[in-house]
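Need residues for this backbone.
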């Protein structure tokens, strides 16, 4: 990867004397923008390219370059990779299209090219990409017009994009917003170096402060997870634009980069799990990137202070803060009294409305901030000053006062929100302050600083994944309910006591052995939704009721599912009353086994109130998963119902995730419905379970 991002020499294969052509732009950029390494144009038709000595082939170049930039048609590009590998080139950036994004023939060419590179110990970026850049080293191995005239300044933002055009757009917008760029990579078809590899490289780069990403679909789940975990461990915020939310968008993403877009809800969950901030607009992505790149610290607590010259804007910001789960607490009485003493007309609860009086006595802002942080125990603050930022002489007093507050209370971010002239904004930013003109965008940026602080704190969290050493292999075909729950029990998931009976009479005997009340169900690997055919009977309290219900269930099964295999009747103890939950596992095309959680009944079926996590994970992550659903309050003491055993629920989710990860692709689906959650300390048991192994041999 160093050969790609920090080469000492670059060959451009397909180099053109015309600096406007695709093969001419990288030569022009490298030469004109000050790349201090060796540039080797490769063109068999000329001895000079843009004033540099050109060579007929890479094999005839005087030295072996670290990096080759290939700007040739697809078939010629494959030959160029073969020549580079034979010469010992360590990395290549391939602009060429006509590979897997086009058709099967192109995919075969791409696969052959990858095989050649791997045999030669060579890394490939692309094909079908716009290239890479290292701004600090003046390396522009790209043909984007975005660096033809204006270059980004060196800085802490690294950009990784599967889309070349969008990546170029991002680099240009970063420059236009006054931020500095470090590394830039567009991965295209990601035949070798993929999005995750580039993120991991940026995460390990000391000059990178924040990673901006554009993702259409994951190409390697394990590499992506490792890269995101590495970024979190290095405290490098990852701000992501993930497209493909709609069905049409997902289809377009697949045809554009030949990558597989997984379920959008799963991407959302995976990003939360691994500490990625998902932006849903370009403005949001840049606001959050700006805040993370320029803020001296993240927000270490939830308590937000709002200072405003407009009461209405204070309410607007408070509403946005609540939506984003930031706390805007009332200041303590003694703090409010201090503020009233100096600002008699102010609203001092929080938001603090300093009114227009501040214009007459600008030093009151510093006093206000001192009370806010010192007596109010606030973790971060947003200062809304309307049009005050347009007044140059006031800005000097505001800045110097805020600088003293920052020095007195380090580690507490302050965002300044006001209309400003360009030179005024530049002065604030030079002093290390983040400036927004729109107040809700400032609140969202502060929420992102809080999000990353919490995420980074989880990097060292002790959250062991349950160890499951003695799991049986999954069977080749469908299993009945008793067999499914026996497999879950091996993972340590609680199940009700049950017996498989072949006849109604045997069911009656089993019921006496277990004890009443009894639940009776049809046992069949082919009938997944038993209640749909009348295959379930609840609250049976006598031998006669069990015998009669068993006969009726078998009769209905024969009538409504005549082709189903019938293994008999499940005779199960009826679990004590509790709150019903649904636990599930599905195979996501991008992330593999994914665990689902929701509360039973209407919350899942009608409202879709569920959360997801990529398997495996530990109990602490399971608790965060539980906390995400809208019906979370039902697990607490609620309207006379007791608090539920959340520890047991979290343990069951973690164990299910470990079970799913262990079996991997051999598992298609798990459905535990219901899991009955008892009162606190009384555990949780699976009352029903379905396990569907992956079909083998296409059957």
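Answer:
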């Amino acid at each position: 990867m160093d050969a790609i991002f920090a080469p000492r020499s670059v060959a451009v294969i397909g180099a053109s004397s015309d600096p406007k052509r695709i093969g001419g732009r990288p030569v022009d950029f490298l030469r004109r923008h000050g790349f201090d390494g060796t540039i080797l144009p490769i063109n068999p038709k000329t001895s000079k390219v843009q004033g540099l000595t050109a060579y007929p082939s890479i094999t005839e170049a005087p030295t072996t370059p670290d990096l080759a930039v290939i700007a040739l048609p697809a078939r010629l590009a494959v030959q160029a990779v073969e020549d580079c590998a034979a010469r010992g080139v360590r990395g290549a950036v391939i602009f060429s299209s006509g590979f897997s994004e086009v058709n099967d023939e192109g995919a075969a060419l791409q696969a052959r090219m990858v095989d050649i590179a791997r045999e030669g110990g060579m890394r490939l970026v692309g094909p079908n990409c716009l290239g890479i850049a290292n701004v600090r080293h003046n390396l522009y191995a790209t043909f984007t017009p975005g660096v033809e005239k204006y270059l980004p300044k060196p800085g802490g933002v690294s950009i990784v994009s599967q889309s070349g055009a969008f990546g170029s757009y991002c680099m240009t917008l970063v420059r236009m917003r006054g931020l500095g760029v470090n590394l830039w990579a567009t991965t295209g078809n990601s035949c070798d170096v993929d999005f995750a590899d580039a993120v991991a490289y940026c995460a390990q780069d000391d000059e990178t402060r924040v990673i901006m990403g554009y993702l259409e679909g994951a190409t390697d789940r394990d590499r992506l997870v490792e890269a995101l975990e590495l970024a979190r461990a290095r405290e490098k915020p990852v701000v992501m634009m993930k497209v493909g939310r709609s069905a049409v968008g997902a289809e377009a993403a697949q045809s554009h980069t030949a990558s597989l877009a997984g379920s959008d809800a799963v991407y959302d969950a995976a990003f939360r799990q691994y500490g990625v901030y998902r932006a849903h607009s370009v403005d949001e992505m840049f606001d959050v990137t700006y805040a993370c790149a320029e803020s001296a610290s993240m927000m270490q607590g939830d308590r937000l202070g709002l200072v405003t010259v407009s009461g209405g804007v204070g309410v607007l910001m408070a509403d946005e803060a609540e939506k984003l789960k930031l706390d805007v607490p009332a200041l303590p009485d003694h703090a409010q009294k201090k503020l009233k003493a100096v600002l008699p007309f102010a609203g001092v609860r929080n938001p603090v409305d300093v009114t227009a009086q501040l214009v007459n006595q600008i030093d009151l802002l510093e006093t206000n901030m001192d009370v806010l942080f010192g007596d109010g125990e606030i973790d971060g603050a947003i200062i809304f000053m309307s049009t005050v930022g347009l007044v140059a002489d006031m800005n000097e007093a505001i800045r110097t006062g805020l600088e003293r507050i920052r020095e007195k209370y380090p580690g507490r971010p302050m965002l300044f929100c006001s209309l400003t002239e360009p030179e005024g904004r530049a002065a604030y930013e030079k002093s290390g302050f983040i400036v927004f003109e729109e107040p809700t965008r400032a609140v969202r940026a502060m929420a992102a600083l809080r999000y990353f602080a919490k995420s980074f704190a989880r990097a060292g969290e002790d959250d062991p994944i349950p160890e499951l050493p003695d799991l049986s292999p999954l069977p080749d075909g469908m299993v009945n309910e008793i067999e499914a729950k026996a497999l879950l029990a091996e993972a340590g998931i609680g199940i009700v006591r049950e017996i498989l009976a072949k006849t109604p009479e045997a069911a009656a005997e089993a019921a006496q052995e277990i004890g009443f009340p009894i639940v009776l169900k049809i046992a069949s690997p082919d009938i997944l939704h038993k209640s749909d055919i009348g295959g379930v009977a609840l609250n049976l309290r006598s031998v006669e009721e069990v015998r009669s219900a068993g006969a009726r269930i078998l009769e209905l099964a024969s009538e409504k599912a005549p082709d189903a295999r019938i293994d008999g009747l499940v005779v199960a103890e009826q679990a004590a009353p509790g709150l019903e939950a649904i636990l599930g596992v599905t195979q996501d095309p991008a992330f593999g086994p994914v665990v689902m959680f929701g509360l039973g009944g209407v919350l899942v079926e009608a409202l879709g109130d569920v959360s997801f996590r990529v398997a495996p994970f530990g109990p602490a992550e399971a608790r965060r998963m539980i906390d995400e659903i809208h019906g979370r309050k039902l697990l607490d003491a609620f309207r006379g119902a007791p608090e539920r055993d959340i520890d047991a629920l979290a343990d069951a989710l973690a164990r299910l995730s470990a079970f799913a990860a262990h079996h991997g692709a051999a598992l298609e689906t798990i459905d535990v419905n219901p899991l009955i959650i008892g009162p606190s300390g009384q555990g949780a048991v699976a009352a029903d379970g379905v396990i569907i192994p992956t079909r083998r041999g296409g059957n």
